[in-house]
């Protein structure tokens, strides 16, 4: 299972279609009738490809599918021209087919849509450039992920896929679907978009395994087909009968007389001939039974061939509007632990994407054209950080991300070398560097410097207010781009931060100040150390273990002298919610040997608490409140491994809860899963809402599944959903929304409560492939993780504006780079620009610039997005129009504009997807856009719509 969630593995599959065989002309696409598929492999992918290519050449009927481009790309780069030509022929003949074609098979629960789109685009671009239209993937192949997201279906549909197949569903759902022959359906991928988001979807019969006893890989122990009748081990009749039985068994769960069998599995096909030789024989002897009345016709096939057969079957199909989360493997094995596993890596992935997107913008806006799929490819490698790999693999992953960020830093430097100097040639380039440990108030290169600059790049197309925190040993004066001294706080760094293992900084203080950043642009702040006598003492109020109220113009947050959060009031809207409790609890991870469902352990994949009631991490807490003009905060320490700092910034409409957890103690030999609870008086009626991949939000109900009669075996874990960006509960007057800075798992187990798991440390493996307990350490002790939640209390009708904008700013945070100029401020000011924006006009607030990248000289790729849902907000849920030319103000005039599919590998006017009918006689047909080259740069966006363009200047 750890396979597909990590790009280091590739999936190949050999699929067999059953049914009436049609004679097929050669050629790729839907006319080809036989199909292979592939299965999985990792370390030896290169040998698999070598061996599969040879095997395919031996028999033109053989088929093979290939899924993950990261590996194919590596292999391809090492091949001779001859081999490449051969492979191209196989692709053009439809004998080797690319399926999905992303850089990797992305996880669906914890991934962010921005990264899913990017990693698919990267693979699609490679395939288009090397192989052309024949290699354009038309099928989504998600055979391994641990649950399936409606948003992914919607994105895949918009990439132009005709269908999606996957392996894992809840075991109860599986039973119900096989019983009712509803394993295949039309999935309506979006509650906002139209039929362009619908995707035909099929659940595979055996995840991705072949029928029992038909694994023919060198590593399998099943009997090969022995067809020399002179030998005593001749077994054709038994093998043929067993296969025909398996086909009939499988057919019972499916609606048509076509079935798909996946012939392959993890790490197979290294000696492809073993598989293919046996399949050749099996096909021959099974089909020979037709003369004796057998109704089974078997041939090599691919998922697209199978899909095409279903499409031509002329049936109507059930539809689905919810998703496949969470899923259980068995009554006590819910795939809900991985929503939180490796919390630090999950944040690192989101942070890397933030840097990647900003880097692309800078690259494009400075027209340095440094786009290289290698540089970006490395940074993309993280798209599936499920946290379910061995420690050394997770380390490798983090290292790749770090290398990607290093490359990005070079691009950022080249861009700023063009954007910063007022006149090129005069100003010496300034090395800009990132400080990755800002979250623990550490930035060693600026420590003790007399002067330095902080440049903040705002990657959104709207002006933002951002509170900067800069660690310092001494006090500095800070100048904004106009040269004015910025009012700034100079506050001690709390001991809990200073004590975080691995922190080596000697900075005991931090500057906190407000910045107002221009849209798609930067501001530079110039820091200069102040001499003691000039230090102005600002008012700071501090209390310990006293009642304390944090308040700004929007919100009031009240704590008692024991550090309990009592109430949050929205002063403007005149609503309040009281809290019965708020704080950290832990579940005991179930210690089990996995021999039966009852003994299922909690592990990297599964969350299974031993008892339904979590323990509070402490009975007492200390509270320290600090109030300044800029920020008011309450630091609440629960024990020596759990604390939170609640921050309310001036002007802010959300409260920041920065939690710090770890090292989670295990000296009592108990694995612990730490949750934060926000328990309120909101009457949520067993209903809560969680987002899918950072976009649309789905309604959830306690102990309920929309499409089958759900039998509850796990009261907690069965109610956990992925929270990629937000969760909320509400009643008539009030909605409490929590935004997260990374993917986490959680739900509303009790009315009025939001529970989010933030960190886990476990002592048992859950037997799904990791093979070691999730027991993360760093600096010789358990890993400490820090993260943020933002709480928003608003009337339901006012909530969307704040959580939509808030979540957008959270994943597209300003990118802070520092530099060490030698110049006095006057010199600096004369040489360098301190503020700049790519835009002249303000953009509508409901539009997000999702992608801004340079494709080549004067050629750009952009994606713009309406990021509100229908009926969420009176104003911003309306359709919106923008002029693309406005985005290119600083670059030139648009001379050509082509709208592309979401994956950017095909003009939208050339997309023709297969049409399907639902049981309610709704057709999935979408009218194809006629025009390829658009005349008008004005673009209309409907709620949740993303449009992709190739722009030439
Ligand atoms: C068909 O059945 C007949 C009679 O049982 C048998 O002799 C023959 O071998 C069978 N053919 C095949 C291809 O199995
Ligand atoms: C922080 O730690 C220092 C050094 O151990 C100690 O002197 C100080 O009292 C601590 N401060 C607080 C607020 O606990
Ligand atoms: C605050 O309360 C906590 C918990 O009761 C206690 O451990 C701590 O010493 C108190 N601190 C002060 C400064 O009173
Ligand atoms: C669930 O159970 C109820 C009552 O037994 C029944 O009416 C309903 O059809 C069932 N629904 C499904 C989807 O099986
Ligand atoms: C967890 O990690 C700690 C620190 O490396 C180690 O001492 C302990 O044995 C590990 N426990 C398990 C069950 O892996």
From TrEMBL:
Gene3D superfamilies in alphabetical order: 2.60.40.1360, Glycoside hydrolase 38, N terminal domain, Glycoside hydrolase family 38, central domain, Golgi alpha-mannosidase II, Golgi alpha-mannosidase II, domain 4
GO biological processes: mannose metabolic process
Signal peptide: 1-19
Cofactor note: Binds 1 zinc ion per subunit.
InterPro entries (alphabetical): Gal_mutarotase_sf_dom, Glyco_hydro/deAcase_b/a-brl, Glyco_hydro_38_C, Glyco_hydro_38_cen, Glyco_hydro_38_cen_sf, Glyco_hydro_38_N, Glyco_hydro_38_N_sf, Glyco_hydro_57/38_cen_sf
Cofactor list: Zn(2+)
Record's keyword terms, sorted: Disulfide bond, Glycoprotein, Glycosidase, Hydrolase, Metal-binding, Signal, Zinc
Domain Glycoside hydrolase family 38 central: 333-401
Catalytic activity: Hydrolysis of terminal, non-reducing alpha-D-mannose residues in alpha-D-mannosides
Any one Gene Ontology cellular component term annotated for this protein: lysosome
GO molecular function: alpha-mannosidase activity; carbohydrate binding; metal ion binding
UniProt EC number: 3.2.1.-
Membership in a protein family: Belongs to the glycosyl hydrolase 38 family.
PANTHER family: ALPHA-MANNOSIDASE, LYSOSOMAL ALPHA-MANNOSIDASE
Full protein name: Alpha-mannosidase
Native species: Rotaria magnacalcarata
Lineage: Eukaryota, Metazoa, Spiralia, Gnathifera, Rotifera
